[in-house]
Structures are given as C-alpha cells and as structure tokens.
C-alpha cells in the first residue's frame, strides 16, 4: 500500500473577517518546476482552509470554508507532474472541496499569501514528488572541475516581472535570452552553463543564490528586462553589487528578504530557513566586486555594439541575487520592456540571439583574462556551421550582419552546410 510521506495538516487558519461569509474562489493555476509543482488558487479574502491527504489512490484534498467557486479550476496541463487531475465538489453546505488526484505519494506544503499586486489573496500548495531528495544528490555529484557559469533568468511563474504595453512579460524574455546564452556557452567547450530556472516557474531569490553556491560556480549572470514610468527610457545596462550597500545593507537584506519579486512569486515567509546568511557576511567582498566590475565592463562593451546603452557606466545597486554570491556576479538589464520599440525587439528571437551573443562575447573576453578559466578552443574568427544555423542567426550570434558575412566570405548564396567554416569579424 502506498503511503504519504511527511503528512502536514493545517487546520482552521483564522479568518480575517469572520462575519464575511462568502470567500470567492476566482481561479487557479499550476507551475511546474523540476523540484516541485505549485498550485496557486486566487481568492477574494483570507481563506479558512484545511488540507489533508488520502491514499488508495493518492489524493490531496483542500477544503475551503464559507466559500463559493467562481469558475471551474484549470487542471495541471500536460507537463510532467505528480498531479494527474483536479476535481471540485461540495461535501457540505458552504464548503468547496478541491481534490488533486496524484500519480503517487508526495510531500507537500501549504500556505496563504496576503495580497501583493497584481494578486489578491492566494493559497499556495507546493507538491514535491517523494523521492526528490535522491535526485538532488545526484545533481551535486555531477559537478566537474570546469568553469561553471550560472545563468539566472529573472522572475518566472507567479512573478511575471515587468510587463510591456503589448503584454510582453519580462520572465519570458529573460528565459529566452538566458537559454540562448546557455547554448552558446555549452557549445564553446571551455565553459559550462547552468540555469537557475529552465521553465516558467518561480525560484526564490535566495534559492537562486543557494543554487550557485552549492554548485561552486565560477560566475553568475542574472538576466532581466528593465521597466520605467517614462516610456521613452531605453537601452541596456549592466549592474554589479554596490559595495557600500552591501556592507551597510547586509543586515537590511536579511530583513528585506520578502522583496517584491518573492512576494509576487509566492514565497512562504514563515517557512524560510536562514541557511546561507553567515556565509554572506564572511565573504571577500573586495575581490568579488573588483572581478564583477571587470566582467560587467566586458559585457557592456559588447552590448553597445548590438544596441543602445541606457548607461555607459557599470551601475551598482543592492540586488539580492548579487549580494550573496561570492563569485563575480552581474545583472544585465537587456532593454526596457516599457519602451514600445524595445519591447518589440526583446520579444524578437533574433534580437534575443543578438543580446545573448553580446553577453557571451563579454563573458568570453573575461574568461580569456581569468586564470581560473581554460584557454579558448577553436580558431579565432572562424565559425563552424551547426545543424539549424542560418546566416541571419550566425550574424546575430556574432554581432554582425548578413551582408557583412556574405562579403567577408565571398558568399553568393545563403545556403550553408553543416561543418562549413565561416569567417566572422574578430573585433
Ligand atoms: Zn527583473
């Protein structure tokens, strides 16, 4: 018989307004990550809820008192998840019951979140497949002695990040660029890249930092898109940690851990354990800030070749994701999603390739000068055609144009063969 692991019962949380009889359930959604599946339920008020599990077959049951179901809840979708389907019912007057049919035993965690724009009250249910601890250890054992770059696409899942006038979401842009950058790094041969998130789900800011530290990474690059009230604001910028802010705000950071992103992303504030706080305070900030600045300058230098800069200097701010990683760490704002023209560009895959290419070349230059990084392989100024490549894609990747590549290589056609060597500008 299957058994549920780590049974957690939360009963009868106090209602914000007990006289208020009708809690409206306004909808729900799923986010699927490698570690967990998250179900979020939107509601009009603080919920009075009870969660319990049943076996044969495995189920999770959520009972919401004094509630009505505004509209049917959507299912978990087609992605791999321990949740097979969602059913709703009314076991007794005024109680809405949500039943999640599971494909096996799970561990779970449930918490209510207060309103955080654009969200109203939310109930969050995190569901972990029971064997998750084992897979995590395997991932750690795989760490090789190479140059590891952690790429951190901002936001995700419940946290869309900035939203443009045409509806483009920062979380998608950030992941698109980071994925392209990941491919470039992994193809290069001398470095290796890993993403803090590889899909549309939220990872806490501390979770991102922890991941980089656990992997003993060599560099950290967070990818974002900017937003401003002023629609005219445009251009990209590169940030590093503010040293002044870091030393004086370290304590502040510990208190400020539920910042805007984490609130939107849906973080259980009560459930966080302060595991890495000590390490942060002890680290060698000077070396880190100096190295981060060198890396940021290299990236800025390449970014200005493919687009406008918002700031020609390396900017400094107290970003949580940069604060605690004791390795060179930069945060790249790839453009303003609130600017009409840049929003359009940021959603364009060729432009994403161009931005990723610029960050890659900056990182590559940094790597050339870093004794910790293996020497460059392959011929300088030569690009070997791979499956799926096109002249326009290569041009975007290397920061050139189709016309320039045609001329440089004396090409009369745009047809490429896999393995073909293309000369590229080696600036
Ligand atoms: Zn952002």
Provide structural commentary.
The protein is α/β, with parallel strands linked by helices. The chain folds into three domains: 23-132, Immunoglobulin-like; 143-369, 3-Layer(aba) Sandwich (Aminopeptidase); 382-423, LysM domain (Membrane-bound Lytic Murein Transglycosylase D, Chain A), CATH 3.10.350.10. It is 32% helix and 25% strand. The protein is built from twelve helices and 17 strands. A six-stranded mixed beta sheet has the order 11-10-12-15-13-14. It has a five-stranded mixed beta sheet with strand order 5-1-2-9-8, with no helix packed on it. It has a four-stranded antiparallel beta sheet with strand order 3-4-7-6, with no helix packed on it. The chain is elongated. The structure holds zinc ion (ZN).
In short:
It contains twelve helices and 17 strands.
The quaternary structure here is: single chain
| N-C termini distance | 65 Å
Low-confidence stretches: 1-19, 132-143, 246-259, 269-283
Briefly, what CATH class of the largest domain? Alpha Beta
- The Cα radius of gyration reads 24 Å
Cα shape: elongated
Question: What are the SSEs and their pairings?
Answer:
Layout: E1 23-32, E2 37-43, E3 49-54, E4 59-64, E5 67-69, E6 83-89, E7 96-102, E8 106-113, E9 121-129, H1 132-141, E10 147-153, H2 170-188, E11 191-195, H3 205-214, E12 219-226, E13 237-241, H4 243-255, H5 260-265, H6 277-282, H7 285-306, E14 315-317, H8 320-323, E15 329-336, H9 340-347, H10 349-369, E16 382-384, H11 391-398, H12 402-409, E17 421-423
Parallel strand pairs: 1-5, 10-11, 10-12, 12-15, 13-14
Antiparallel strand pairs: 1-2, 2-9, 3-4, 4-7, 6-7, 8-9, 13-15, 16-17
Bound molecules: zinc ion.
Residues 154-155, 161, 170, 224 line the site of zinc ion (ZN).
């Amino acid at each position: 018989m299957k058994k549920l692991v780590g049974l957690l019962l939360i009963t009868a949380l106090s209602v914000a307004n007990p006289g208020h009889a009708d809690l409206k359930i306004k909808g729900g959604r799923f986010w699927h990550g490698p570690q967990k599946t998250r179900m979020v339920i939107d509601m009009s008020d603080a919920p009075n809820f009870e969660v319990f599990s049943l076996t044969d077959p495995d189920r999770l049951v959520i009972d919401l008192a004094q509630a009505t179901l505004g509209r049917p809840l959507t299912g978990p979708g087609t992605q791999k998840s321990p949740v097979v389907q969602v059913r709703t019912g009314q076991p007794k007057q005024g109680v809405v019951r949500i039943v999640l049919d599971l494909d096996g035993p799970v561990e779970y965690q449930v918490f209510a979140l207060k309103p955080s724009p654009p969200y109203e009250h939310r109930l969050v249910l995190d569901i972990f497949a029971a064997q998750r601890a084992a897979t995590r250890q395997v991932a750690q054992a795989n760490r090789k002695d190479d140059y590891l770059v952690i790429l951190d696409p901002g936001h995700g899942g419940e946290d869309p990040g900035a939203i443009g006038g045409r509806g483009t979401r920062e979380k998608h842009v950030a992941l698109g660029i980071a994925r392209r950058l990941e491919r470039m790094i992994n193809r290069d041969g001398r470095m290796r890249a890993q993403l803090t998130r590889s899909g549309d789900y939220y990872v806490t800011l501390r979770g991102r930092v922890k991941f980089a530290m656990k992997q003993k990474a060599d560099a950290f690059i967070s990818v974002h898109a900017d937003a401003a009230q002023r629609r005219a604001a445009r251009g990209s910028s590169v940030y590093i940690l503010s040293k002044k802010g870091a030393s004086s705000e370290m304590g502040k950071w510990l208190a400020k851990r539920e910042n805007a992103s984490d609130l939107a992303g849906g973080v259980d504030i009560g459930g966080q354990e302060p595991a890495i706080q000590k390490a942060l305070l002890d680290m060698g900030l000077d070396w880190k800030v100096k190295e981060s600045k060198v890396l940021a300058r290299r990236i800025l230098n390449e970014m200005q070749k493919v687009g406008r800069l918002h700031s020609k200097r390396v900017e400094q701010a107290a970003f949580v994701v940069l604060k605690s990683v004791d390795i060179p760490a930069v945060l790249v704002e790839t453009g303003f999603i609130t600017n009409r023209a840049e929003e359009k560009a940021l959603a364009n895959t060729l432009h994403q390739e161009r931005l990723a290419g610029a960050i890659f070349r900056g990182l590559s230059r940094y790597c050339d000068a870093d004794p910790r990084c293996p020497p460059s392989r392959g011929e300088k100024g030569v690009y070997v055609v791979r499956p799926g490549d096109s002249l326009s894609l290569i041009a975007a990747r290397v920061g050139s144009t189709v016309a320039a590549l045609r001329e440089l290589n004396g090409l009369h056609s745009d047809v490429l063969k896999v393995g073909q060597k293309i000369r590229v500008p080696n600036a």
